[in-house]
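Treating backbone geometry as a discrete language has practical consequences that deserve illustration. No coordinates are needed to read the tokens, only the vocabulary itself. For completeness, the protein is quoted in full, as a sequence line and a line of structure tokens:
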Amino acid sequence: MLLPRKPLPLAVTLALSALWNNAAAQSAAPSVPPDTPLMTVVVVGSEPTDVEPNSVTLDADALLPLRAVTSDTASLLRDSPGVSLTGAGGVSSLPAIRGLADDRLRIKVDGMDLISACGNHMNPPLSYLDPTQVGSIKVFAGIAPVSSGGDSIGGTILVESAAPEFAAAGQGTLAKGEAGTFYRSNGNAVGANLAATAAGETLSVSYSGSTAQSGNYTAGGDFKPAGLAYIATAQSLYNSTKWLPGDEVGSTQYKSTNQSLGVALRHDQHLLDLKLGYQHIPYQGYPNQRMDMTDNTSTQANLRYTGRYDWGRLEARVYREHTEHEMNFLEDKAFWYSGNAPGMPMLTEGRNTGAVLKADIDLSTRDTLRVGSEFQRYRLDDWWPPSGSGGMSPNAFLNINDGERDRYAAFAEWEAQWAPQWLSLIGLRHETVRMDAGPVQGYSANGTYAGDAAAFNASDRARTDANWDLTALARHTPSRTQTVEFGYARKTRSPNLYERYTWSTGGMAMNMINLAGDGNGYVGNLDLAPEIAHTVSASFDWHDAGQTEWGLKIAPYYTYVDDYINARRCGPGDTAATSGTRCNAANLTATDQFVFLKFDNQDAQLYGFDVSGHFPLAKNTAYGSFTANGLLSYVRGRTASGPDDNLYNIMPLNAKLSVTQRHGRWTHLAEVHLVDAKTEVSHIRNEIETPGYALLNLRSSHAWKKVRLDVGIENVFDRLYYHPLGGAYVGQGITMPPMAVAGSPAWGTAVPGMGRSLHVGLNVQF
């Protein structure tokens, strides 16, 4: 057992006591010299003034306090209004904005549109950048300008690594860097990062690298039902007798390494920037998927030009990303099947090429015109080599063969500052999305696969979608202490390759297609139509005149989605297989068990609100300054056509309340996270309900001129809780049985959250 289950050890108690006493003792210390860089505290609701409406920006200083807490870049968004996190691997969670997640969001990393090359979406875009490499994050919740949107309906997340730095005129050579390390007790997670820059006035060369590793984490108590179902592998048939403790969350280990090299040239107001990236994840477990990632290697090349002219700004970018991805079973899941099959190897290769050209044209002091075009060429092969001499042989299973998804986009956007109090933004975007896939085959030509493969191969698989986006936003500033924004957007997303082109209704094959982490199996649908979302939203912001002391923001919204890509139970009419299919009559009415589904269009609606605010409790007292922060979010998602049901993976009512104390170089934070019970669940998926919970987190930081120390405790009282978006627990045992057998995960257990974890992080600049 990695963590204390009862009161904190005496050493930890004394250390925390000394920490707080040291902070209080500094009340008589002299003020910090002006040239000493103090840490920047994340204050929920204190958003900087953005040129673009409906956006929130987090810079590197605002993200610093979370570096020691997480190795998952998506979790840096945990305090952004409207954003929640869908559970996955330890470095690969999926952000959701107002109930819409994954491919429904436009996520760009250094301007690249990265695509998850996996039937379980184990390698989402934000997994390709370590938190220590993030320079800034901009979030458009719900309504995004057409210049930042496209092929998405839920919003946009723009993540940038650190910008190139150059020596000032006459400075000579700039040489700088930083190194950091962290330790987290739950899972014995460790990691390190290094960054360095050498630059003159026109040439800059930079390097950054990071590594993170963790074992399985433990929950706040035993969460597994009694019986053989939660012994890791229980039967001699599967040649394993490993057990996991009742509080250990199986398949949550990971290891990740990221490196990047940047070279930039600057001349006057022109910049040419080349970034080369490499990532290797040798393993990452998934507690809500039946498979694990056993290797993921990605290489990236990203070339950008930006220039400032008399008429405005021009940007051009070309990029190439190549992913090789492998899945199989790690040590917590049964490896040998049917006596002679060494796992279920599954290989994926994704090749992603893109180009962007856009310009900001200053028409007048009032008007700015943004125009641009984008191109993306994506190729995917997903195949499963034969294993053993039984049902997974003798051929390779072609899940997606020669998959193609190409996007051609053009947009125009007009921004006008009509008066100091009024700003408008109107944009139109068109995208052509062309998709196709080659012929497929199963492991063999028997009845399990032959019928489905023959029907798929005989079909017309080419599809072309013509998608239109429209955005209209306005900002009204009646006074220095009030801002009102409101708008409408029509956004469109075409299906991804897995939603359209996966074809087998065999039980094992369907269980391999799961973008939701719900333990169910899925099959694609060639007849899927693009999603079209109509969103109206507003925000009402009250703040002090300088927007630094206090603020309160309320943002209601409503979205109606035509042809929302949902799922329905598959039945005998959905398969051409003569045997082995799970699309049978019993599947249509099954309850309290995992089921088999087919992607399908259905209208849906989502509505809710976000409230965020901050307020000074005390300033410049003997014990420093105190600020209260708050965040409240609610979203409701339901179907609007067909069978009446709740949408899957919708976060219930939740709130965060915190108090931050700053005194000298010290900053302390006490945070309470409150989450309501999840009872509005998707019945078509047999989604698992979760109880409500409350968590307490404590964090402290000290910043010297060149050194920063972070310490803290997450989940102080070691509560056992289940995150509403964590998915179904299938993290150990015989996760891919040919039939229901003892040792296979049983339906009804949600993935528990992490128990108490102590963390410490150290960062040194040089």
About this structure: The chain has one domain: 10-633+645-765. The radius of gyration is 26 Å. Residues 10-25 form the longest helix (16 residues).
